[in-house]
Design brief:
It is a single chain. The protein has 107 residues and is mainly α. Helices cover 69% and strands 0% of the residues. The chain has 3 helices and no strands. It starts with a helix and ends in a 6-residue tail after the last helix. It comes from Streptomyces gottesmaniae. Keywords: Membrane, Transmembrane, Transmembrane helix.
């Protein structure tokens, strides 16, 4: 009889643990469900944190603003360097297009 009681205690503890975890998950789902309609109706009322990209901000601006923060952007120095190289390349392409579009000097 004592062997069955000894087996019943861990099984009961496991059941209580699983039921408690399910209850917590359901409460989280309910609480998140209550927050979604408010944020959907008034997205501007939510104050952005320092780690969120605003709607008016480009990805490049976000990376440049947070390039020194670990975990926010992956290897921010490399991304900023790439953005600088892309900008320089775009300027070179624009100058080349202007040069090719201008008529050659007449002799």
């Amino acid at each position: 009889m004592s062997a069955s009681w000894a087996l019943l205690i861990p099984v009961a503890a496991l059941v209580v643990f699983v039921l408690g975890a399910i209850a917590v998950l359901k409460l989280q789902k309910v609480s998140l469900g209550q927050n979604e309609p408010r944020s959907a109706t008034a997205p501007s009322s939510v104050a952005p944190t320092g780690f969120q990209q605003s709607a008016q901000e480009s990805r490049e601006e976000f990376v440049r603003r947070h390039w020194q923060r670990p975990g926010v952007v992956a290897n921010g120095v490399t991304l900023v360097d790439l953005y600088d190289r892309i900008r320089a390349l775009e300027e070179r392409v624009a100058r080349a297009e202007q040069h090719s579009a201008s008529p050659p000097p007449s002799d």
